[in-house]
Known about the structure:
The chain has helices at residues 15-32, 153-169, 188-201, 212-215, 220-225, 262-273, 302-314, and strands at 39-44, 52-58, 66-70, 77-80, 82-84, 87-88, 91-92, 95-101, 109-116, 120-121, 125-128, 143-146, 173-177, 206-209, 238-242, 245-249, 281-285, 319-322, 328-330, 334-335, 338-339, 345-349.
Amino acid sequence: ATVDETPSDLNFPSEGMTTFGFYLLCLLLSGVFADTKPQQIHIAFTGRSDEMNIMWATVDETPTSTVQYGNSSDLNLIETGSFSHYYLPFYESPALHTVTIKGLAPSTTYYYRVGDSNGGWSNTFSFQTKSTLPVTPQNPLKIAVLADNGDSANSDMVFDAIMKKDKEIGFDFLILSGDLSYANGFQYIWDQWQNMVEPFATHAPMMLAPGNHEAISLFIPYNYRFQMPTNGWDNLYYSFNYRNVHVLILNSESLDEFHFSSMYQFAASDLQRVNREETPWIIAAWHHPWYCSNAKHEDSAWFMKDEYEALFYKMKVDLVLQGHVHAYERTHPVYNWSVDSSATTYMTDGHGGNKEGLYYDWDEPQVIFKLNPS
Length: 374
């Protein structure tokens, strides 16, 4: 037999109550299954030696953005910050959290974890603040250098190699000269890449420069996901001191390169303020190379070079770190295409593992400014 109505003895609620109950259940389940586990954890300098930016992501929002930290595993200090999202077509970013911890003592190991008492906590990580000891052969400054990394099996191998060397010598920080994740508009790749680099980035500050692959999304993911030392405007160019080195990061991916531009004025003012007794070395970094003898991207930053090179020569910048060319090359000290012992040395280090592969075509005969073969 069949029936066409609900038996009265089951006493089902009305259709309206059933709908309400369904939505109430969904609401409760959304709280139970909310993804608030911290991921993509990374740290960066703020420009002050007694501070550190700590950043992470959660798929869903948490009531607070909190770092518990201390100079022992007790984590007896607390600092809070904030989170934000960015939106691009068909994509909403995770909640991107930033907390700045302050009042850090030099030459100290700090332990920390990130998260929220309701949403849950990360594992405990650690980092070392700037040493007060002078730089010597017995106590050297150790900087990891990379560009054009990407999110491929080779990219993973490169970071595995960096991690292996890091366990041996302990890098002070990393300079990554642009083309970070190779997301190319596919935003989920940023999430994958940041989880890939997390084992290194939780304890060694990653200091970044934007590349042409960051420009594809108008630098929006870059500016939301990373907090570099402020220049008063954005993350695209900045500077900081670390022990005996002054580091200047510039953006080779914009038209902000004329003498009257804000970036040029920032660079000129910044270099003039450098105290060469405290920081006798100046290292600069950006993405597109000024000097390169690889046929793939030869002279790709000629305009920036024409505008800035005289300034760098005058201020005696020691070393420039570049990317974009997927190969390694190092020059003699060079100014205006001529070897000059008073000039800047340029190093291209764009073989970071990205999926586009390596570049093998070099100028022949070897150009005069090139120090060593590829």
